[in-house]
Amino acid sequence: MTEKKVVVYGATGYTGRLVIEYLREYNVPFIAAGRDEGRVQDALDHIPGIETADYEVVQVEHTVEALTELLRGAQVVLNTVGPFSELGPAVVEAALAAGAHYTDTTGEQDWLITCDEKYGADFAKAGLLLSPGLAQMYTTGEIAAQLCLEKPGLDTLDIAVFWGGSPTVASTRTILVNAATSSAYYLEQNAYTPFDPEAGLTSLVVPGQHELALSLPWGGTSHPVWFKNDPRVANVKAQGGVFNAALMHGVPQIVAAALEATKDMNQEDRDAALTATAAQVMNQMPPRENPRVNKSLDSVHASGPLGRAHCVIHGNSNYKQTGLLQAYAAYSLLQQAPKQVGFASGCQAFGHRELLGVLRSFGLVMEPVLTVQN
Ligand SMILES: NC(=O)c1ccc[n+]([C@@H]2O[C@H](COP(=O)([O-])OP(=O)(O)OC[C@H]3O[C@@H](n4cnc5c(N)ncnc54)[C@H](OP(=O)(O)O)[C@@H]3O)[C@@H](O)[C@H]2O)c1
User: Fold this and answer.
1) Which residues form the DUF5938 domain (predicted)?
2) 5, 167, 218, 348 - which has most CB atoms within 10 Å?
C-alpha cells in the first residue's frame, strides 16, 4: 500500500524518465517502479534536478498480483512498459483490481482494440479511466483531428504522422513485433477494414516539404479505434513513418525477412527471434532529443459532403511530448475527474484544447495551422 498517488511503471526506460522529469516540474509526488530496484535508482540518479522531486523507488515483479499490491492506494498508473499487447494486460488488470486509473504510451492498434473490447466496460463500471496511447503517436494527431471536427458535418479523416530521430530499444521492438504479428485496420463506415498487407510503401504529399514522403499503415495507428464510436465520424485512414526515406525503404524488408524467418516458430521462440532482430536495428538508448533533429508532423484532412478542414501541427521532441502528456494526465487526475471514464483517448479524457495548451506551454508544438472551407 502506497501513500504516493502516482506510479510510473518502467521508470528505467527512455520514456519513463521523461515522464518523471515532467512530474517533477508539476510537483507531483510519485513512485518510480521497475523490475530492478538498482537500475531504477541508477536511472533516476541521472535525471537533472531529481533531488527536488518527492519520490520512492520500488522493485516489482511483472505479475498481476505484485502489480496490484504496488497499486493499492495509488490513484493512477502511468505505464511505459511495452510492447503493450504482450506486457500490458498484467498492468491493466492490476490497475482495475487496485482501483487506479490507467494510462500508457502505446501506439499499438491491437492493444487499443483489446483495451476497448475486453477491459473498457469494467473500467467504466468502476468509474476509472482506461487511456492507452496517451503519447505523441498518436495524441498530437488526435488533437489535429479534433480541431478539424469542431466544424460540424465532417465525417472522414485522412491522417498523416511523421517523425524524425531515432526510436528507442522498446519502440523498435514494438514496431517490429507489432508489424509482424498483427493486422492493421482503417475505419470504413465505422467498421474495421484491413489494409492490404502486400500494399507496401505509399508516397504521400505532406505539408512543409517539396519532397514526397514515404508512408506505411504503421500498424493502423490508434485513430480508427478512438473514432469508431464517435457519432461524427465514419471513415478514418492513417498512414505514417519516419522522414528518413532510406530507413522507410528498409522497414518493409526487415519486417518481411523477420516474418519469413519466424513463420514456423511457436510464439515464445518467435518473440525471442523478433526481439533479437529488433536489437540488431537498435540496441542502445538514443541520445537526449534535440529539437533540431527530433521533429513531429501531424496532418489531418477532414471532409464531409459540404465542408473540408485541414489541420497541421509541427512539433519537436516526440518522446518529450509523450512524457509531458503522461505527467499532465496524472497531474489532472489528482485534481479532477476525467471527462470520460472507461476506454477513452487522451482528448476524450482531458480535452483536445487542454492537451494542445499543455504541449504549447512547454514549447513542444507550434500553433496549429487550421484551414476550414465551407
Ligand atoms: N506512441 C508513442 O508516441 C510512444 C512514445 C514513447 C514510447 N512509446 C512506447 O512505450 C514503450 C516504452 O518505450 P521506451 O522508449 O521507454 O523504451 P525503453 O527505453 O526500451 O524502456 C522500456 C522499459 O520497459 C521495461 N521493460 C521491458 N520489458 C519488461 C518486462 N518484461 N518486465 C518489466 N519491465 C520491462 C524496461 O525495464 P528494464 O530497464 O528493466 O529493461 C524499461 O523500463 C515502447 O513500447 C514504445 O513503443 C510510444
Assistant:
1) 139-373
2) 218
